């Protein structure tokens, strides 16, 4: 694949792209410049396409086992086929490793066992979650590629200070999300977000949980900010479901990386299939 220079030597440029693609695969969103975004998008779609072709290509293998009483037995395990293993090794050239984080409500033994079974978390997420999802979409809609999206934003006219923006259809069509720019410190522009409904749990998970709505808010124990130079925000967000017991109502904390581009740039990207 041909790459733009991006104002960096080759080794630095590739390290930067690997880092941003890894974060895009892991967190689902990043914020970057338009030029970098195009390169990240191209590389990410190439990686996802490789994973889609081989994500279901597995083989079952029978192995002999021995228990504590020295009794032998057999178990059937699912392994990568040679083609799937080659695909995994191919995408690993483009991705960095990410640490496996202990989930809320998970005890140490459960975390240790889950961590033991996951050698390469980013690659596992790519082959087990992302690639099958897009492979299913391609089969149902006959649509390949286009794994990233453009989001339209506008100023909230009800905010007299004009510090609030609306991100239209951020996750789901018909559901907008608002965030606010803090002007308390001009040299340290921060992002604020109130708790707000994001989508119904039926649309998000296929069933009703809690009060039936999935909410989004910005946790206070992380710093979310706006980069005035590169025109993007870096924001931590938490998804949760009201009406569920504490410890079971949090989906997780994720990172938003969103860049602003002009209407003309957006029109050009749309013609390219974005």
Tell me what you see in this structure:
The chain has 274 residues and is α+β, with helices and mostly antiparallel strands. It folds into two domains: 1-56 and 83-148, Alpha-Beta Complex (50s Ribosomal Protein L17, Chain: A); 153-271, no CATH class. 34% of the residues lie in helices and 24% in strands. The protein has helices at residues 10-27, 34-54, 82-92, 108-116, 121-141, 201-205, 263-271; strands spanning 58-66, 72-80, 153-155, 164-167, 177-182, 190-192, 196-200, 213-217, 225-227, 232-240, 250-259. Strands 7, 8, 9, 10 and 11 form a five-stranded antiparallel beta sheet that branches. It has a four-stranded antiparallel beta sheet with strand order 3-4-5-6, with no helix packed on it. It has a two-stranded antiparallel sheet with strand order 1-2.
Summarize the structure.
Helices cover 34% and strands 24% of the residues.
Helix-strand layout with pairing:
Elements: H1 10-27, H2 34-54, E1 58-66, E2 72-80, H3 82-92, H4 108-116, H5 121-141, E3 153-155, E4 164-167, E5 177-182, E6 190-192, E7 196-200, H6 201-205, E8 213-217, E9 225-227, E10 232-240, E11 250-259, H7 263-271
Helix pairs in contact: 1-2, 2-3, 2-5
Search tags:
alpha+beta, 50s Ribosomal Protein L17, Chain: A, four-stranded antiparallel β-sheet, 11 strands
Q: How would a crystallographer describe the biggest sheet?
A: 5 strands, antiparallel
Mean pLDDT: 81
- Cα(first) to Cα(last) distance is 18 Å
Rounded to an integer, what's the Rg over CA atoms? 21 Å
Strand residue content:
15-25%
Q: What's the tally of helices?
A: 7
CATH superfamily of the largest domain: Ribosomal protein L17
Low-confidence stretches: none
Return the structural class: alpha+beta
**Outline:** globular
The CATH architecture of the largest domain = Alpha-Beta Complex
DSSP strand count: 11
Order of helix and strand elements from N to C terminus = HHEEHHHEEEEEHEEEEH
């Amino acid at each position: 694949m041909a790459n733009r220079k991006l104002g960096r030597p080759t080794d630095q440029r590739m390290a930067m792209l690997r880092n941003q693609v890894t974060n895009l695969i892991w967190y689902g969103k990043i914020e970057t410049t338009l030029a970098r975004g195009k390169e990240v998008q191209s590389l990410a779609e190439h990686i996802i396409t490789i994973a889609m072709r081989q994500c279901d290509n597995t083989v079952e293998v029978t192995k002999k086992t021995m228990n504590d009483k020295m009794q032998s037995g057999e178990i059937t395990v699912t392994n990568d086929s040679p083609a799937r293993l080659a695909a995994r090794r191919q995408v690993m050239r483009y991705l960095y490793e990410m640490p496996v984080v202990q989930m809320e409500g998970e005890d140490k033994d459960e975390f240790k066992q889950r961590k033991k079974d996951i050698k390469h978390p980013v690659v596992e997420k790519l082959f087990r979650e992302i690639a099958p999802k897009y492979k299913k979409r391609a089969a149902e809609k006959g649509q390949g590629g286009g794994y990233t999206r453009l989001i339209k934003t506008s100023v909230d006219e009800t905010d007299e200070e004009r510090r609030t923006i609306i991100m239209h259809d951020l996750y789901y069509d018909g559901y907008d999300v608002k965030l606010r720019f803090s002007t308390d410190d001009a040299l340290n522009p921060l992002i604020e977000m109130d708790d707000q409904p994001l989508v119904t749990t039926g649309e998000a998970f296929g069933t009703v949980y809690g009060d039936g709505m999935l909410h989004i808010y910005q946790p206070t124990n992380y710093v979310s900010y706006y980069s005035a130079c590169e025109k993007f925000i870096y924001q931590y967000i938490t998804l949760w479901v009201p009406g569920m017991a504490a410890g079971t109502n949090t989906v997780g904390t994720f990172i938003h990386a969103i860049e602003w581009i002009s209407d003309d740039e957006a029109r050009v990207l749309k013609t390219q299939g974005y």
